Structure formats: C-alpha cells, structure tokens
Amino acid sequence: MPDGNNTIVAELAELVASIERQSTATETGLQELIERGTAHVAGCQYAGITLVDAGKAITNVVATHRYATELDAAQQRYREGPCVAAAWEHHMMCVADLGADERWPRYQQFALENTPIRSVLSYELFVDGSTTAALNFYAEQPHAFPDESVELGGVFATHVALAWSMMRRKDQFRSALASRDLIGQAKGVIMERFNIDAVEAFELLTRLSQQSNRKLIDLAEALIESEHPLKGRHRP
C-alpha cells in the first residue's frame, strides 16, 4: 500500500477509536466515516451505506448525497443492483461503467436516466443474523476507481464495519439500561398499588406480559403512562 494510504489508514483507525471513546451516535459516526471515505478514496465523489434486513427490505442508512439514497430506493424497487449484490453475495462489487455493465438492467436504466453516476464500488460490511449491509462509493466518471481505490475502499469497509459493530453494542447496552429502568419503575407502581414486594411485583408483571402477549418492556412503559388495564383497579 502506498505511503499516503498508510497515513490515511492511521487517521481512519484514530477516527474509529475516537468514535468509540466519545460514544458517538451511530448515524453521526457512520456519516463521519463515509465523508472521510469520499475525501480519501481516489475518484470517489459520493458515498453511502445500504442496509438489507431479514425481510429483504433495502434502505439507505447514511449518504453524502441524494444520489446514493435514490439508488438505494431503486434497488428496493427493482430488487437488484451492485450494493445489494455485495450485501447478499458477501463480497465486493465493482462497476467500471454503468453505461456498459448490464448485470442489473433495471437498476442500470434508472441510474442512467436519473443520476450522473457511472462508477460504483460496493463492499459487504457484515452479516448479523437478520441484517447485512454494504458500503458504497460512487463517481460520475466511468472507470473512476483505480486499483489503489479498490484496495483503500476495502480498508474503509473494514473500519466502518468495526466502528458500526462497536456503536451497535453501545446502543444495545443503552437500550438495556433504559429497559431496566422502565421495568423498575413499573415494579414500583405495582408495589404501591397492590402493597406487594419487588419479587411479587415482577412476577405479576411477567404474568401480565405472557397473558397479554406483549413484550415486558412495552407493558412496563404502558403501565407507567397509566394506560394499562390495571389503572383504576386499585384505590388508596
């Protein structure tokens, strides 16, 4: 790898570490990473991340320009394109010239008629049971990405996947803490209304969750907001 790229990789590693230290919001962190990619991957003008869930819904997570968002919408509509191919088939896709590449004809027609995009690089980011994603670089010129860009794009994909994984774990941890707090508040409401202890309150909340076929956290939130059927059953 050229010395200039080694410097970029070092800066990228520091950016990922900074995102972790600062507990940066997921969307903000990903946006910063793809903007850095747009600036450093030779030939790239725009970038974005495509997400594919278990139901095969295709959405744009972040983008540096509306072209990336519009092309993801086209891939959702036509169920084809380089970004979803990279995500579904678990590797990298390179489109040197959309005007000549006919692998995805409906996507190709949309891109040619509605955007100036002619070169695309897409890299699989991760597979997490129910979801997969791709990091995408775009350019208006055909043959915009030299071999050096393909290599550096792969390095960016690795770092984006790492950063996203860390941010998702932090999001899950924060969500778990919030859920614990809500359930604790709901237990307090039940303990006060029925004059029972914490264990009995949790058992009652669990039974209500099972009987109503509602998630425990949803039931707890509804109870706290005084929307649960228990409201009005207790009188001081």
UniProtKB/TrEMBL annotation:
Annotated GO MF terms: kinase activity; RNA binding
Domain of life: Bacteria
Keyword Translocase: no
SMART domains with a match to the protein in the record: ANTAR, GAF
KW Kinase (keyword) present: yes
Record's keyword terms, sorted: Kinase, Transcription, Transcription regulation, Transferase
Family matches, as InterPro entries: ANTAR (IPR005561), CheY-like_superfamily (IPR011006), GAF (IPR003018), GAF-like_dom_sf (IPR029016), GAF_ANTAR (IPR012074), WH-like_DNA-bd_sf (IPR036388)
Domain ANTAR residues, every copy: 163-224
The protein, known as: ANTAR domain-containing protein
Organism, scientific name: Mycobacterium ahvazicum
Organism phylogeny: Bacteria, Bacillati, Actinomycetota, Actinomycetes, Mycobacteriales
